[in-house]
Specification:
Elements lengths: L1 H15 L4 H12 L7 H20 L1 H7 L1 H24 L14 H13 L2 H15 L4 H32 L4 H26 L1
Helix pairs in contact: 1-8, 2-6, 2-8, 2-9, 3-6, 3-7, 3-8, 4-7, 5-9
Length: 203
């Protein structure tokens, strides 16, 4: 039981730590929202989406997704289009002043975008379903439950921490230069991921 929990913690951290589209978006919202609580929609949505993906992976959906070519093809195609659009939107977005939240991303948009970067990101899905789903096969019963819960809890803690760090960093600057730079980096990461997926699609 203990070994499966430790395995889940290490594996989840290994998958979630890299600077991907989902992480950048959560961090970005933590930095741009006028108050930390205003970033809760993106934190909760990203956490719930990861919980869903991890649960599906452990339940065996990975066999279907990774085994049927046309499902992978559709997933990758939609992901590329979405990432190109999100990159364009992020690149053009303007920094938000801490003294005014008029242009801050509304809760509804946070939820929609967070769901998109979580559920329409083939790279994240393949990692979650492929790696966690495959790793969970070696466990059963209470050990599988411990492994699954460990992965899910790490995910929740990480997104709350990421947004909190983003909020602190956002408060350190009085100008919009940092946020502008962060938006540009976010857009480049999204476009880079889209190009990688495009290459995967035709390889």
């Amino acid at each position: 039981m203990i070994s499966s929990i430790i395995h889940g913690i290490i594996l989840a951290f290994g998958l979630i730590l890299p600077l991907g589209v989902q992480n950048v978006f959560v961090f970005n919202q933590g930095a741009t929202q006028p108050k930390f609580r205003r970033a809760l929609p993106v934190i909760l949505t990203a956490s719930i989406c990861d919980t869903l993906l991890i649960s599906l992976a452990v339940l065996g959906i990975s066999v279907i997704v990774l085994g049927v070519y046309w499902i992978k093809f559709i997933l990758l195609t939609v992901g590329v289009i979405f990432l190109l659009f999100m990159g364009y939107t992020t690149w053009r977005s303007k920094p938000v002043s801490n003294s005014s939240d008029e242009k801050a991303l509304a809760p509804k948009k946070q939820i929609v975008f967070a769901m998109s970067v979580s559920l329409l990101n083939p790279h994240a899905i393949m990692d979650t379903i492929g790696v966690i789903g495959t790793s969970s096969i070696s466990y059963s019963g209470i050990e599988k439950l411990g492994f699954t819960l460990a992965c899910i809890i790490v995910s929740w803690i990480w997104f709350f921490t990421l947004a909190f760090i983003g909020r602190q960093v956002g408060r350190l600057t009085n100008s919009g230069e940092f946020i502008t730079l962060l938006n540009k980096i976010s857009a480049l990461i999204m476009w880079g991921t889209a190009i990688y997926l495009l290459i995967t699609l035709f390889s």
